[in-house]
Amino acid sequence: MTPSFIPPARPLIGEEEISAVARVMRTGMIAQGPQVEAFEEEFARQIVPGTRAIALNSGTSALHLGLLAAGIGPGDEVIVPSFTFAATANAVAITGATPVFADIDPRTFTLSPASVSSAVSARTRAIMPVHLYGHPAALDTLDAIARERGLLLFEDAAQAHGASLHGRPVGSFGTFAAFSFYPTKNMTSGEGGMVTSRDPALVRWVRLARNQGMEKRYENEIVGLNNRMTDIHAAIGRVQLTKIDAWTAERQSNAAYLSAHLRGVTVPHVAPGATHVFHQYTIRVPQDRDGFARALREEYGIGSGVYYPIPAHELASLARFAPDTDLPATRAAAAEVLSLPVYPSLTRGDLDRIVEAVNALAEAGA
Fold first, then answer.
1. pLDDT digits (tens, 9 = 90+) for 139-183
2. Which of 21, 170, 179, 189 could make an S-S bridge to 237, C-beta 3.0–4.6 Å?
3. Can you say how many angstroms the Cα of residue 141 is from the centroid of all Cα atoms in its chain?
4. How many CB atoms within 10 Å of residue 45?
């Protein structure tokens, strides 16, 4: 019998989430309401203690409104990684500011502090690292650079719910952080995002901006948008929040098993003091990565993903911001990375199949 296909990702939605949605639907309170408020309070308390949280309709909206609330706009530069999803740089560009691309640490795939230092100019206002794949960026070093240069620090924590550095949770280092609840993230609300911050003025501005600029109905204080989260999505998020700690432990256990048994590929590095939550388990395949992925699927029934095959600064939409940019570590990662299944519902049999397949292909030179 042909073994079942192991997909690269698998959102975990159960009866509790379905029941929570049904309860909201029965109340008739579907738009932003009490579920959103409760989700905000619970997320801040559990994931980024000491901050306030504002729920939005997507992680990109969280980045966008966080940047606007921090005063980023035309004439400003914000240093970002190129090795990430386009939303990071898109959010900067849509404010009218300029994304400036820096290289990555080839071990952690997060912003290289040395590259950031070289990218600072007279127009630089902020640094915005991405905690890629669930590994925290070098926040202590980046924060020191920001303080020394008089810059702001923001965090793209879309993939890093529960990650930490030296015991301090991501989302608590910068002026603000943005989280995502897209279906494939470590926890989901179906779709949605969250801004976290300790700055009361920034928190209030984001709350106003997500709701057409008003706190009280028809008393618009600023020019705003409609970036609200619905109570339906918040209800899903609240249930998922009760499960994420156990899911994270499963991801970390699965990752440890893979790292202990894989051969012939470069397994993920975890920096000293870092808590990696393994949104993705990303290996390096130095020769014919795409052929390796194809063989995994076709010969072994194992899905995988390439995050991200085209550096952001080379995308048609963003290349104008980086006409002469050379990022060698980013270029190498884009050609070599391959993310294997690591999600909590994998069985030991699934993990053994992944190990057997990867080791066989690596030994054969795939």
1. 999 999 999 999 999 999 999 999 999 999 999 999 999 999 999
2. 189
3. 20
4. 13
Write down the pLDDT at residue 184. 93
Beta strands in 238-294 (DSSP E): 274-275, 281-284
Domain extent listing, the chain:
15-241, 244-364
Cα 331 vs. chain centroid, distance in angstroms? 20
What is residue 261's three-state secondary structure? Answer: helix
Cα separations in angstroms, 309 against 45, 66, 228, 305, 327: 36, 27, 32, 10, 14
Q: Does this chain's domain 15-241 share its CATH topology with 244-364?
A: no
Q: Which helix (H) or strand (E) holds 176?
A: strand 176-180
Handedness of CA 45, 86, 331, 151 (dihedral sign): negative
Does the domain formed by 244-364 have CATH 3.90.1150.10? yes
User: For 15-241, which CATH class?
Assistant: alpha beta
pTM: 0.96
**How crowded is residue 4: how many other Cβ atoms within 10 Å of its Cβ?**
9
